[in-house]
From TrEMBL:
Residues 1-16 form the signal peptide. This is SAF domain-containing protein. Keywords: Signal. Pfam families: SAF. The lineage of its organism: Bacteria, Bacillati, Actinomycetota, Actinomycetes, Nakamurellales. Residues 25-85 form the SAF domain. Coiled coil: none annotated. SMART domains: SAF. It comes from the Bacteria. It comes from Nakamurella panacisegetis.
Length: 180
């Protein structure tokens, strides 16, 4: 009987002496589902406690408010540095330049996220397409203009040799993007 009581006492002591869960780190989480390109406001983020936050987790609202999402996020998701579009000038990489384009079909923009590779095509009125750049990379998707919400802009990294032609056709003609 004494052995049983000692065994129970040892079990209670082991459980009681075990430390509780860590207090956690204070991180930012999203308060609602948001699409790619959304510009974060104070109402979109809240500080929460996370026992094991992901690498790059943001901890202060000022790190996120006013910045644009690089991908869609779900309510409750912890915000990390890679979920936000860079605050600096887009870096197109070696042999490429950044070019802003407006796809002829603005709904295409909703399917894009920074980092996706696309082909850039010039589309004639006849419907014939001409390949301008076989491998462009989406760098950024600025929020829609309030004055022209149906004319969406995308910033692409394109080969230097194709940049002028893409820019000129983008102003005077129709551009299409397709996934590669």
């Amino acid at each position: 009987m004494v052995a049983v009581l000692l065994l129970i006492a040892a079990g209670v002591t082991a459980v009681a002496g075990r430390p509780g869960p860590p207090a956690g780190s204070r991180v930012l989480a999203v308060t609602r589902d948001l699409p790619t390109g959304a510009t974060l406001t104070d109402a979109d983020v809240a500080t929460v406690s996370a026992a094991d936050p992901p690498d790059g987790a943001l901890g202060v609202a000022s790190q996120a408010v006013g910045r644009q999402l690089s991908a869609p996020v779900r309510k409750g998701e912890v915000l990390t540095d890679v979920r936000l579009v860079s605050t600096g000038r887009p870096d197109p990489g070696a042999g490429r330049v950044a070019v802003p384009v407006r796809p002829a079909d603005p709904a295409t923009v909703d399917l894009l996220t920074p980092g996706i590779h696309v082909a850039v095509l010039a589309v004639a009125e006849s419907g014939q397409a001409t390949l301008l750049a076989p491998d462009a990379v989406v760098l950024a998707i600025p929020p829609p203009s309030k004055s022209e919400p149906d004319k969406r802009l995308v910033v692409l990294a394109v080969p230097t040799g194709a940049a002028d032609r893409i820019t000129a056709i983008g102003v005077s003609g129709a551009l299409a993007l397709r996934f590669t």
